[in-house]
Design goal:
Elements (H helix, E strand, L loop, with lengths): L1 H5 L6 E5 L4 E5 H9 L3 E5 L2 E4 L10 E4 L4 E8 L3 E7 L11 E2 L2
Antiparallel strand pairs: 1-2, 3-6, 4-5, 6-7, 7-8
């Protein structure tokens, strides 16, 4: 977890497994998809880790200095989807969004 907070943060890529294949997706996009709602202005995520009593370690809480912004993108005639707005821009442009 510390590597996420100190390293690439919300841009850290994870392999996400779907129907028959995997793709690389940034943590920010994964979080937005789990929230299933627009988030603006941005929020600072907290990550809480509890290894359990059998591991004998203390719990840890990590604070992201980055802000998480999620935008709703409407695709006319099809659907709408939630995307990570990496620059937390008020007016959305394609270069402000990360599409997994």
């Amino acid at each position: 977890m510390a590597r996420l907070v100190i390293g690439d943060g919300l841009a850290t890529a994870f392999h996400v497994y779907g129907t028959g294949s995997s793709l690389s997706m940034p943590l920010g996009q994964i979080m937005c998809e789990r929230l299933k709602a627009p988030v603006y202005p941005g929020k600072h995520p907290l990550v809480y880790y509890d290894p359990g009593p059998d591991c004998g370690r203390m719990t840890s809480t990590f604070f992201f200095h980055e802000t998480l912004c999620c935008a709703s993108l409407k695709i006319p005639g099809i659907t709408s989807t939630i995307l990570w707005n990496k620059k937390c821009a008020e007016k959305l442009k394609l270069d402000n969004l990360i599409i997994g």
